[in-house]
Every structure is written in structure tokens, then in C-alpha cells.
């Protein structure tokens, strides 16, 4: 299997060179072995002079001064030379920037670039590219040592003394890594999740990370991360259960990623496409605008918010939406979390007569990041409910005409010209809504069913809907309604 190499690399030259040059890999690949390092860093405001534009490209292929680059990139070049490597990949230099650049084609391959690099230089010490990361580290000047404390036991029970031994593995040290500006950057998640090896340069010390271990500078003992209960992207991707990985695992990754910052919200799907492509090829599954075909039911049940909800919640317009995405795509609503449902039963079905036979991103072709196709064809039940501000609602039994009361909780999405009383004037006493059940809630004692709130779009073909929220019906008993499937086009 041939490795996907970057289109361009920086030839860093020798240790004392003042110049570097940009290399077109395809024009030089006749038997030439390209091994390279790759940089993960915060751009900030200090990266303008580093950018390769269409105007600068030819000159940079001839050679250019290291001094014209941001300090973080200068440090990365020095480190690459010191480590004995000739080539380095940096996005600002190796991707042509600007409206006539090649970001669109390069972005779909960036996951491969990080996966195939020998090592990723993670500039965690710098919150701006102008700062650099090769700075004095306290742990070098003041190395830590293992120690033990013996404390007397005055209770009269058990031993006379207790011995407490420090394992040189305090969460305080790792906090510098987990809380760095870099980890808050959206692109960082796939850069560090996909790299084989990472050198994390922090102000507290240097960390070496490989596929399953993390070492603090000067230590041969892997870092004990048992205290860390957070789901880490590398840990999620290493899960052996493929079904779980592409359903709950992917939802976890999306939730973590959705909390990160991007300069341009339009980059949201691009910045996680490398991980999506990895799963597409590994698991031989299809992907479409942030969702996997196999795990579609789980992926659709996103909601905006940082806490478990109850009663009425409205997703306020905290971030400007700069890109036209379908209403079912989580990328327009970050940050998001997901309702968890059981693997079975699933009430939506991928057998609509107009469904796409192949989704845009699939094994052997992962070049599509954001598909211009916005329609999702499924079959599912649609049930009319009446809900209010409190955790109560009702539906009318069609056979008996009787009112059936129920408990519920729900979130509403960004405004979609629907439920205007809720959005603009506050929730009234009650509101009639359409509910599309998706699956049964995980870890719930009652027969709770989770589904999407949807509304029919005027001016479109019959059966065309947009989502406008998520609703959990706490104790759903009428199973027959779940069998009445409608042809639905979600846009």
C-alpha cells in the first residue's frame, strides 16, 4: 500500500542554513524517499508572513528566508534539523492560501498527512505562532524525584505507620498539556489523534506520546492515566468493537470536537474529516456531512448544550452560522452532545426509494468533505404531539379519540422559521409539533423513546422536512404507531 504523501514539503536544509525551500513532492518522487515531520500549532495573529500564496509560490520553490516565518515555525524548522530530518510539513506554507489556493483539495488529505508523518511536533507552549515553543522548561532546571511520606497511625488499629509514595505522575503536570491553547483548537483533535508519535512541547516539560503510552521528559515509565476519566480521542479510536465505535464512539468524538474553537466555523467538517476518512477506510462504511450510514440513528440525536436537559430548552444563536448546511447536520450547532440510544430497536429505516445508493464519502473515495447534496432520504414514523413549557404533553389516540398525557423533555434547535411562538415570544401554554421517533433511550428504567422534532417545508415536494429539535417521550406505550412508516426527505 502506497502512503499518501503531502503535495508539498519544506526542505529544511542543514542546521546553519538561513534559507529553506518548498518542494513539489510529485516532481521529485522518482525513487526519492520522503520521511517528514509535521507541525500542530496555533496560528493566532502572527502567521501572515508565513503564508504561501499563489503569488509567492514560485519564489518559495526556489528558496526563502527562515527569518520571514513566524517564530513557532522557525522553532519547528530548527527542531526538524536537530532531529536529523530533512522535510517538514506546515499548513500555512505547504497549502496555498487565499481564495485561489488549494485548501479544498488539500483539506481532505490532511488526515493522511498526519497519519503518515514520522512524528508530530505539537507546539502546546505557544498560543500564537509569533511566540515560539522552544523556551526554558522548569522541569529541566528543577527535575522531580520520587519520594515517600511516613505518617503515624494513632488510631490503635492496623499498622503503626502509613507510607504514601508519590509516583511522579501528578495530574498537575498533565494539566499543562490538556489545558493548553492548542488543545482548544479544532484542528488539533485530528492532528494529535492520527499522528503515530507526538512531541508535546509545554512550558512545564516535554511529553512523548505514541499510540498507547505517554512519557514525561526524562522518565522511562509510561504516564499513569487511570485518574483521567475523560474519553480521549486516541482511546476512542482504539476501541475493538467496531459497531460501538461508529455509533457511541463517533458521537463522543463529535461532542469533544464541537467544544473546540475554529477561526472559521465553515471549517468544522474539514477539521474532523481525517478521522472520518480513517473510519470509512478501516470499517468499510459510508459517510455524509458528519454522519456515518451505519450509525445514522445515533448521530442524528444531537442537541445543543453542556448539561443534561429537562423541560424546555432553546438553543440560542451563540455563534454565527457562516455555511449553509442541512438541518440534520450537527456542524451548524456546536457545541453539541448526543442522546444515547440502544443498538436495537431503531425506528428509522434506510430503505426510502430515493435514497442514495452510495453516500458521497466511501471506501476508496474520501475526497468529499462537505457534500452539496443536502437531502437525507429515510422512512420513519411521524407522530403529532402537543407540548408545552413544562415536562408534560399529550397526543390524541386516533382510534379512540382520547387524550393520552405523557412526560417529556426536549431541546429546540436554531430558528428555522417554525414554532415562532416558542422562538420569538416564549413558549405558550401548548404547541402542536411533529415528532419522528428514532430509538429507545439507553440506561432508562421506563420505555423512553427519543426522536427528532421536525416540520414540513413549504414550497418543497411533499414529505420534505427540516429538524427543529430533539424530544424524549418518557414512557411510550403505543408500539403500533412506530410501525407506521412514512417516506421522509430531511433537508
From TrEMBL:
Pfam families: HET. Residues 36-191 form the Heterokaryon incompatibility domain. InterPro entries: HET. This is Heterokaryon incompatibility domain-containing protein.
Amino acid at each position: 500500500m502506497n502512503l499518501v504523501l503531502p503535495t508539498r514539503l519544506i526542505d529544511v536544509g542543514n542546521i546553519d542554513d538561513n534559507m529553506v525551500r518548498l518542494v513539489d513532492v510529485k516532481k521529485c518522487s522518482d525513487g526519492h524517499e520522503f520521511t517528514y515531520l509535521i507541525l500542530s500549532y496555533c496560528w493566532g495573529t502572527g502567521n501572515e508572513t508565513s503564508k504561501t500564496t499563489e503569488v509567492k509560490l514560485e519564489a518559495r520553490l526556489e528558496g526563502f528566508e527562515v527569518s520571514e516565518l513566524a517564530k513557532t515555525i522557525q522553532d519547528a524548522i530548527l527542531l526538524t534539523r536537530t532531529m536529523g530530518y530533512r522535510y517538514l510539513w506546515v499548513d500555512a506554507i505547504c497549502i496555498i492560501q487565499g481564495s485561489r489556493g488549494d485548501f479544498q483539495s488539500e483539506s481532505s488529505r490532511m488526515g493522511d498527512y498526519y497519519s503518515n508523518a514520522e512524528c508530530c511536533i505539537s507546539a502546546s507552549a505557544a498560543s500564537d505562532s509569533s511566540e515560539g515553543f522552544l523556551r526554558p522548561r522548569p522541569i529541566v532546571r528543577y527535575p522531580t524525584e520520587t519520594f515517600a511520606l511516613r505518617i503515624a497511625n494513632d488510631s490503635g488499629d492496623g499498622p503503626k505507620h502509613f507510607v504514601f509514595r508519590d509516583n511522579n505522575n501528578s495530574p498537575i503536570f498533565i494539566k499543562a498539556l490538556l489545558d493548553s491553547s492548542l488543545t482548544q483548537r479544532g484542528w488539533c483533535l485530528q492532528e494529535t489523534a492520527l499522528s503515530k508519535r507526538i512531541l508535546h512541547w509545554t512550558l512545564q516539560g516535554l511529553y512523548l506520546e505514541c499510540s498507547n503510552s505517554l512519557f514525561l521528559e526524562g522518565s522511562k515509565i509510561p504516564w499513569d492515566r487511570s485518574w483521567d476519566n475523560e474519553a480521549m480521542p486516541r482511546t476512542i479510536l482504539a476501541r475493538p468493537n467496531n459497531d460501538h465505535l461508529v455509533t457511541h464512539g463517533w458521537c463522543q468524538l463529535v461532542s469533544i470536537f464541537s467544544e473546540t474553537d475554529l477561526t472559521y466555523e465553515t471549517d468544522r467538517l474539514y477539521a474532523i474529516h481525517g478521522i472520518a476518512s480513517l473510519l470509512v477506510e478501516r470499517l468499510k462504511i459510508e459517510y455524509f456531512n458528519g454522519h456515518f450510514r451505519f450509525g445514522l440513528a445515533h448521530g442524528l440525536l444531537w442537541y445543543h448544550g453542556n448539561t443534561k436537559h429537562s423541560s424546555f430548552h432553546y438553543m440560542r444563536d451563540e455563534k454565527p452560522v457562516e455555511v449553509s448546511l442541512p438541518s440534520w447536520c450537527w456542524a451548524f450547532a456546536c457545541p453539541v452532545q448526543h442522546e444515547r440510544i440502544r443498538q436495537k430497536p431503531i425506528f428509522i429505516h434506510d430503505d426510502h426509494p430515493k435514497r442514495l445508493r452510495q453516500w458521497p464519502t466511501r471506501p476508496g473515495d474520501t475526497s468529499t468533505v462537505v457534500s452539496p447534496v443536502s437531502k437525507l432520504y429515510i422512512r420513519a414514523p411521524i407522530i403529532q404531539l402537543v407540548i408545552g413549557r413544562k415536562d408534560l404533553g399529550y397526543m390524541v389516540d386516533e382510534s379512540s379519540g382520547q387524550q393520552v398525557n405523557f412526560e417529556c423533555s426536549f431541546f429546540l434547535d436554531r430558528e428555522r422559521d417554525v414554532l415562532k411562538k416558542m422562538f420569538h415570544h416564549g413558549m405558550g401554554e401548548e404547541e402542536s409539533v411533529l415528532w419522528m421517533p428514532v430509538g429507545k433511550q439507553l440506561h432508562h428504567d421506563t420505555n423512553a423513546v427519543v426522536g427528532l422534532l421536525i416540520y414540513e417545508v413549504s414550497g418543497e415536494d411533499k414529505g420534505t422536512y427540516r429538524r427543529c429539535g430533539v424530544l424524549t417521550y418518557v414512557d411510550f406505550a403505543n408500539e403500533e404507531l412506530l410501525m407506521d412508516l412514512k417516506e421522509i426527505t430531511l433537508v
